[in-house]
């Protein structure tokens, strides 16, 4: 294998992993009503079809980031892709909703292993001069997956049934495992003397789990319900425990010394807030068109394509610009574009929503995201020592995934919280929903409020991105 070709072969391997993990989320966003209707699931169970995967995926990403630094990336990546494919097959045979949710948790294990190792594998394989282009291709592949995901998920769910929303992962996974086995070189871990911070991982899981549980339940059973109060209490208590544990751990899961690097700190903060603001947009719009306009899953999937079309347009452009302009300029510009798109959604969502302006708003959000992600990721990865890249990328991925899971729970909570009890399950009913005109107005107002919150969060992300160092990121490793 030629030395010059190896980095691109690595990129081809990681692209399959990114394609699989990204499509897994975007297909279900559109096909959720199909799954919910099959199992006659209520609002809470429907929420957890999505949230169970996101919650465990988020926490495990940081665990596996440390394990990759200790044991090496190749074996963990291939194991994760194999496990993910097997569980995807088993999900299609779920006898009830709770078995499906349990299997989604196991699927999250494989997904976390794949996500954790893709960016470090790319960063290790490419030199700095070509890294920006490689990362932009990585984002482009994720964008293509998100572009195809809603259409594939909607089409498979509508034509063949909900099982194929999961079964389509299997052939992709098999191809990815075989190709990765032959391409990836065995590289020993660079931090073998370190240990996994299990206590830190347990406390962050319990804290985040409490918050997600409270958000998912609060809009349905009420904020005064004992279970919601206990969830919020768990979040506060275990978050405090996590901070204490990390400050006293010999090998903490989060290396707080890295936060002395201002570009690293602000880039991670921008990652989290941007993910919190934009991650639920496709889900909300897909559910909106299925419930309000009675569109089937396939048509709803087509109507959320502008987000990923925008990312596909922007990603190769920003890859070329990454070597000429600072991370702060590019990332902040992307977030400003996202904010303008959010404004269009707030202005146009309603009973007689303008498909054109909602599509244009989604396009701007997608382009803004594509412009933001590559320079922001490069800023994070190039400001840490090479032996800390697994942990650094694990934290970046965890913050992004944490933003996704909180965004999903938060946005669905906002939409349902102001609705009467009889309408709380309706947003998951898809084309089977039958609404009076007053009900349509109530549901539309819930969606508008959710988009307003997402827009305000994007403003905070702009501030975080702008406040990073104005200079170029300092390279912490030799060329």
From TrEMBL:
What positions does the domain Major facilitator superfamily (MFS) profile occupy?
10-473
User: What does the UniProt entry say about where the protein is found?
Assistant: Cell membrane
Q: Where mainly found?
A: membrane
Looking at the UniProt entry, the stretches that span the membrane are 41-64, 76-93, 99-119, 131-152, 164-184, 196-216, 222-245, 266-292, 304-322, 329-349, 355-372, 398-419, 447-467
Question: Can you name one GO molecular function term for this protein?
Answer: transmembrane transporter activity
Entry protein name? MFS transporter
Taxonomically, the superkingdom here is: Bacteria
Family the entry assigns: Belongs to the major facilitator superfamily. EmrB family.
UniProt KW Transmembrane keyword: yes
Q: What membrane topology does the annotation report for this chain?
A: Multi-pass membrane protein
Q: Which UniProt keywords apply?
A: Cell membrane, Membrane, Transmembrane, Transmembrane helix, Transport
- What GO CC terms are in its UniProt record? plasma membrane
Q: Which organism is it from?
A: Pullulanibacillus pueri
Q: Which SUPFAM superfamilies match?
A: MFS general substrate transporter
């Amino acid at each position: 294998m030629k030395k010059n070709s190896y980095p691109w072969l690595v990129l081809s391997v990681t692209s399959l992993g990114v394609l699989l993990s990204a499509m897994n989320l975007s297909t279900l966003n559109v096909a959720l009503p199909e799954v919910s209707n099959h199992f006659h699931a209520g609002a809470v169970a429907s929420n957890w079809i999505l949230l169970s995967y996101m919650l465990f995926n988020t926490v495990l990403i940081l665990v596996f980031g440390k394990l990759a630094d200790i044991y090496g990336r190749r074996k963990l990546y291939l194991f994760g892709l194999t496990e993910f494919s097997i569980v995807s097959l088993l999900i299609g045979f779920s006898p009830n909703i709770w078995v499906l949710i349990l299997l989604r948790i196991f699927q999250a294990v494989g997904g976390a292993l794949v996500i954790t190792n893709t960016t470090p594998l790319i960063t290790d394989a490419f030199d700095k001069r070509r890294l920006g282009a490689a990362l932009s291709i990585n984002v482009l592949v994720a964008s293509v997956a998100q572009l195809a995901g809603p259409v594939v998920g909607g089409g498979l769910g509508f034509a063949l049934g909900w099982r194929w929303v999961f079964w389509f992962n299997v052939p992709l996974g098999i191809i990815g495992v075989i190709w990765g086995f032959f391409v990836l070189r065995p590289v020993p871990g660079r931090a073998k003397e370190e240990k996994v911070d299990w206590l830190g991982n347990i406390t962050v899981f319990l804290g985040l789990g409490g918050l997600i549980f409270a958000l998912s339940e609060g809009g349905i059973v009420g904020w005064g319900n004992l279970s919601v109060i206990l969830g919020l209490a768990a979040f506060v208590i275990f978050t405090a425990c996590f901070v204490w544990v990390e400050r006293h751990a010999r090998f903490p899961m989060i290396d707080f010394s890295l936060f002395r690097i201002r570009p690293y700190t602000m880039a991670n903060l921008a990652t989290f807030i941007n993910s919190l603001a934009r991650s639920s947009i496709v889900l909300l719009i897909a559910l909106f068109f299925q419930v309000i306009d009675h569109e089937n899953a396939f048509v709803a999937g087509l109507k959320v394509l502008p987000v990923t079309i925008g990312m596909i347009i922007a990603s190769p452009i920003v890859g070329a610009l990454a070597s000429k302009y600072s991370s702060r300029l590019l990332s902040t510009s992307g977030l400003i574009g996202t904010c303008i798109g959010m404004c269009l959604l707030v202005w146009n969502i309603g009973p007689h929503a303008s498909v054109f302006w909602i599509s244009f708003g989604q396009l701007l959000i997608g382009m803004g995201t594509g412009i933001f992600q590559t320079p922001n990721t490069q800023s994070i990865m190039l400001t840490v020592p090479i032996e800390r890249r697994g942990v650094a990328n694990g934290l970046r991925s965890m913050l992004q995934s944490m933003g996704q899971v909180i965004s999903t729970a938060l946005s669905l909570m906002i939409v349902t919280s102001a609705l009467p009890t009889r309408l709380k399950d309706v947003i998951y009913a898809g084309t089977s929903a039958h609404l009076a005109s007053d009900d349509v107005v109530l549901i539309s107002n819930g969606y508008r409020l959710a988009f307003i919150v997402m827009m305000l969060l994007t403003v905070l992300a702009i501030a975080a991105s702008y406040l990073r160092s104005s200079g170029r990121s300092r390279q912490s490793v030799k060329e």
